[in-house]
Amino acid sequence: MQALEVSFSFDGSSGNESQWPPDQSFLGIDVGNILRGNGVNPTSAKGAFSGSDWSRSGLDGDDFFSFSLQPNSGYRLGIDTLQWEERRSLTGIGAWSLRSSLDGFTTDVVAPFQVPDDSLVRTHAISLPQSLFGELTEEIAFRIYGYEAESARGTWRLDNVQLTGSLTAVPEPEAIQLVTGSLLCLVFMYRRWTSHHLRRDVIPH
């Protein structure tokens, strides 16, 4: 098992790129770029990832920031925490929600966060339930939805997104079968050897 620390620092970004890659790559897992939903327009924000046109009412299924992780064959992913910084303009979003692809983005991973009516930078650290995110072998995607914006021109940006967890190599089924078969063969040979020597011991010479 190896510790996993994925980060998106957005160093050198203009904020309006269509997508942005993670800071590093890893053996055993593919980490997707951060993207916007189709309802969000790119906006400039140096050293961050930004957008406007967030829903002015409730959560809209097209208004989000998103990224994904795909464990390679033979690996198991466990995710412990997800952390990021965010900042709104004074007419930006009023709430955000975190959801995942485990249930098709239908329920919140944590309670929605009501954003204060200011333009300060906030840091959020989310501990993810291990019953859901502790043993993943398929692709997992996260979406951070923004909504309740005061204006269509209001912006919202992400920065310093970080994910911590672990990545474990899992034996392939063929390898497990080979090991099991070898152990059974050894047990069979041992029993034959034991049976043979027991017969020699009881047969009079």
Describe the fold and architecture.
With 205 residues, this protein is α+β, with helices and mostly antiparallel strands. The protein has 2 domains: 2-170, Galactose-binding domain-like (Jelly Rolls, Sandwich); 172-205. It is built from 2 helices and 13 strands. Strands 2, 3, 4, 7, 9, 10 and 12 form a 7-stranded antiparallel sheet that branches. Strands 1, 5, 6, 8, 11 and 13 form a 6-stranded antiparallel sheet that branches. A hairpin with a 5-residue loop joins β5 (41-43) and β6. The chain is elongated and about 80 Å long. The protein starts with a strand and ends with a helix. The relative contact order is 0.24. Residues 174-187 have low confidence and may be disordered.
Brief description of this entry?
With 205 residues, the chain is α+β, with helices and mostly antiparallel strands. It has 2 domains: 2-170, Galactose-binding domain-like (Jelly Rolls); 172-205. The protein has helices spanning 130-133, 173-202, and strands at 2-8, 19-20, 29-31, 34-36, 41-43, 49-52, 64-71, 75-88, 95-100, 113-114, 122-127, 140-147, 155-169.
Q: Mean of residue pLDDT? A: 89
Largest pleated sheet: 7 strands, antiparallel
User: For the CA atoms, what is the radius of gyration?
Assistant: 26 Å
Structural shape: elongated
Keywords:
alpha+beta, Jelly Rolls, elongated, about 200 residues, 2 domains, single chain, seven-stranded antiparallel sheet, 2 helices
